[in-house]
Amino acid sequence: MADTKVYLLDGGTLVIDGFHAFWNRGPAGELRFPCYSVLIEHDDGRYLFDTGYDFDHVMRVLPFEKPIQDAAQRLPAQIAKLGLKTSDINYVINSHYHFDHCGGNKHFHEACTICHAKELEQSGNCQPFEHLGYSDMTFAPELAAKRGMKLPADPALDMYTPRFETVTGDQEIAKGLWLYETPGHTAGHYSLMVELKNRRPMLFTADACYSKKSMDMMCISSFHLDPTRSLESMKRLKDLAGKHDAELFYSHDLESFRGYQTGADCYS
To answer: Please, are residues 132 and 98 in contact by the beta-carbon 8 Å criterion?
Structure first.
């Protein structure tokens, strides 16, 4: 793997109300948004940033989010479209551990999982109003047991014993792969910037900023641990994009997502 390549893997869509996407601003009404994962081919290995949601979990616990995800959009199938197996992924990086960003972790038995130390701690001991966000604990069966949660029978979990590498602060985890602390949405949220040879850097906001509209309005989502830090993180992303001439890629922006290259079409 000579030059770094980035693939965006379509993981389907969910629905939230406009007042949740744009906190106290709206407008209200159903807002359908995409969920996707980022696969990075790098000299040091294959990195996967976030793993989307698990359809069965959402239907069981959060059916009001009206998931649309066909078989081809499930993460193992998306990986297979690139000629890869789940065992070919060396590292899974989770921006945070809300259900729509970690639902596919259980498929990557060989990968080392990288996350913020505060995020792993919070997911195992979250505030009451965070319980739905942290409702899918399949990424950490031992933590689930400590929380008194019984995980559903799932063949993908039978051999899944995750290995965590926790980090804090801003980190260059491999040459040109930068994790930036952007807390507020959750305790230990990370955003990711990828430097490429033939284009501007790609700065993946994850849930520190849902959409371009969120950034333009400086309006955070209602799903947060600390609204003040959430707004500070959004401003930080804007500053980082200016400093590095990076293009912002938003986590849950259907209009922007329609213009992204997905599947086998890569950024390099």
So the answer is: no
Q: What are the residue ranges of helices labelled H in 175-223?
A: 212-217
pLDDT per residue over 114-140, tens digit each? Answer: 999 999 999 999 999 999 999 999 999
The rounded distance, in Å, linking the Cα atoms of 99 and 67 is 12
d(CA 92, CA 46): 9
Residues with a catalytic annotation lie at 100
Which of 184, 206, 255 shows the shortest CA–CA distance to 23? 184
Indicate the pTM of the whole model: 0.97
* Backbone torsions φ then ψ of 38, nearest 5 degrees: -120, 115
Strand partners, 35: none
230 and 224 in contact (C-beta within 8 Å)? Answer: yes
**pLDDT for 220-249, tens place per residue?**
999 999 999 999 999 999 999 999 999 999
CATH (one of 3.40.190.10, 3.60.15.10, 3.30.930.10, 3.40.50.1000) for 5-257: 3.60.15.10
Which helix (H) or strand (E) element contains residue 99? helix 99-102
Cis peptide before 27 (omega within 30 of 0): yes
pLDDT interval class at 78 (50, 70, 90): very high
Which residues sit opposite 125 in a β-bridge?
none
**Beta strand ranges found along 212-258 (DSSP E):** 247-249
Instruction: Report the DSSP pairing between strands 45-49 and 91-93.
Output: parallel
Residue 218's Cβ-count burial label (10 Å; 0-12, 13-18, 19+) is: exposed
Domain boundaries, the chain: 5-257
